Amino acid sequence: LQLVREAMLGVVNGGGTGGASRLQVPGVQLAAKTGTAQVRRITMAERRSGVLGNGQLPFKLRDHALFVCFAPADNPRYAASVVLEHNGHTVRNLDTPLIGRDIMTYLFDRDRALASLAEVEPTWGGDIQTRMAAEAAAYKAAQTPPPAAIATKTDAVVPSDSDAVEAATAAANQSQAALAVDGPTGNTVAEDGTTERSE
After folding, report:
1. For a surface tag, which of 3, 4, 105, 127 has the fewest beta carbons within 10 Å of its beta carbon?
2. What pTM, to 2 d.p., does this model score?
């Protein structure tokens, strides 16, 4: 067991893959192991097309990121396991080693952890209350039906459906009616409205 402890201490403090998780708490060292759970392999066809890493895959196909840790390394008091599904170790400041470090920092030096949190929270959209309020507003907006469209002549279905055209049509109809005679006055097809001759 001592060999495993020393190896996990080296992962964080000896140049291993978890160096970013090194605690900044005086007198407390973190021991840890990073890991990856493969979701699926990148196919040869994908590799030929240029897909070489998790960051180039769709989210649901990315590997899961893992991190197990304990501290203090010489006399463990706390242990934690961090699993981020489909993270694929693609975003460094949101990766499992840093989350593990932040958890342990909070347990050993709360003020330091909260100061660190205050530095990065603006990049996430603000503190938790601000983010929750923004998410609630977005949810409410998505659930609210759009206002009913008010019919106006500007959204006419046909070009002739406007006040000016209707007024001109009404005036033309009135003029036609004023000139209209009860019966045909001429003897052409257009004037009579029929091809039948009446004599």
Report:
1. 3
2. 0.62
Cβ atoms of 33 and 68 within 8 Å: the answer is yes
Amino acid in the structure at residue 108: F
- 3-state percent breakdown (helix, strand, coil) of the chain, nearest 5: 50, 10, 40
Domain 2-108 coded CATH 3.40.710.10: yes
| pLDDT digit string, tens, across residues 123-141 | 888 888 999 999 999 999 9
Q: What are the residue ranges spanned by the domains of the chain?
A: 2-108
Name the strand (E) or helix (H) holding 81: strand 78-84
Q: Report the SS3 class of residue 149.
A: coil
Place of tokens 């983010």: 131
Name beta bridge partners: 78. Answer: 71
